[in-house]
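Proteins fold reproducibly. Consider a sample protein:
=====
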Amino acid sequence: MDPHLPWFILINPLVAAALIHIVLRRSPSSAAFISVCSACFGLIAAIGVWFSHTPAESIEVPWLSLGDDLRIPIGFTIDSLSKIMLLVVTGIGALVHIYSTVYMASDASKARYFGNLSLFMFSMLGIVLANNFAMMFIFWELVGLSSYLLIGHWFSKETAAAAANKAFITNRIGDFGFMLGILMLWAATGTVVFPELSAKLADIQLSPAYLTAAALLIFCGTLGKSAQLPLHVWLPDAMEGPTPVSALIHAATMVAAGVYMLARSYFLFSAAPAAQDVIAWIGILTAVMAALIATQQDDIKRILAYSTLSQLGYMVSAVGLAAPDAAMFHLFTHAFFKALLFLGAGSIIHALHHEQNIWKMGGLSGKMRMTFACFVVGYLALIGCPGLSGFFSKDLILLAAWNSNKLIFLLALLTAFLTAYYMTRLVVVVFLGKGRSHSTDHAHDGPAAMTLPLAILAVLSIIAGWGTEPFFSHSFQGLQHPAHSSFVLALAVSVFALGSFGAWKIYAGKTEEPIRFLPFFLDKFYFDEIYAVLIACTHDLLSRIAAWADKWILDSVVVRGLSGATWGSGFLLRFLQVGNLQAYSFLFGIGIVILVYLLVLGK
């Protein structure tokens, strides 16, 4: 493999972002062209890396070194894991860039949008290529920054600005734990480079509690980026950003960074079984909770957002169940069909003049035939229809759960049922029946720049699961892959059929939501309200403490005390300033006498 290719893949989008933000801010068409070309060139280079039949290698240059205590290189890991992720990021990224040329065509800040999109590509590719935790953390934070800029692209819209702030702050909480975990690993081993950490892991295994704590702190990074309980609240609100952003960042790449990080550092988690148990349970509880919430949402993008949460929970749980290959396989297939669903939703929203309420849609199957056909492929892949990519990857996670923890398996099966239910509800309400608003009368498919990415993603959503599983199994040598079970397979197909049929019977022909007795799901388990109360209480308590300290310590003791002491000393000294030369001479003489007395007494 040409060693310059990874450098080109990384630097290429950074150059594009710099050109756009510095030179082309007032040339939106040129900015879009540069950004799209950058994304396409990155995809071509990633394909070149994929077809380079070379063993896993590490390319690095020295960056920061403090003797033998700390060595942080700028390094790239090129193996089957990073090759797969490079294809996902650059492939989805290129399609989203092309799609955005139409979706954002009339946006007043199109140049800024494409500049931030290129900045995100640079940040995400840095995470994929990093061969050490320090470099990964730097790009991890850059991803947080670029996602903040993209979510808040329409910053004049109050809800978008609030969503961007919420995403940024929530991710910082998880990232603080991630940073502490990295510091703990460095303190114990003296390195942050992945191969060196793996070789020195025995040093930490002598203290299982320390290793478990470090692993769980590293996992905090995933809690934030991959939106797992209890830091999941930012992802649904992030749908306030442009829909192509949702497809790229919040379906296929950024939110998958947490899962990729777990897979990249799996050597650490495999040595901490207690941490793996925590990871497995947090993942599956996130999956079930998000699926339950999705059953009652009416906003098409929020339904897909909670679906993303649920599928990320599947992936995280798979890592905890000692099946990182299954997690990465599902990440791979999910990237295609979820990006397809988001871009399909974007086409619908674009055609309906930014209407997002599914109950104001309907009858679109005959008006947007291309979008409908592609959307149905993504829907079937997501709910695990036999033969499509999602069926193969979800089946592996179910098998891993069956072999490791029967209760987690039952919850995973429940999640599969709920996924089939709420996604069938969405398809029936949006595409079938009659139009329920005036905007549906003139709906039609978008131009080729919108429909071509949908068609490509639809094809990938079908074929991505065929014959690709070995690539993921080879990334984790020595793992005991769960044996296929016809019983588990039969259960998976059964819940797929039951969930789909049940939703069809309930929602076919309906013009409004027939099930409104589940406010707990509709109101998202009141997480936002609970957090608002906790923040308000904490803020109020801290403000009261600060007010008391300001009044009685700073104001009374420090400010008034010092000013009073200064005034008092000045008041006393003024009695010595009588303006009489004889008095001054007398006082001077008394001072000399006292001084002599003290000197004699001292002897």
Summary: The first strand starts at residue 57 and ends at 66. The chain has a mean pLDDT of 88.
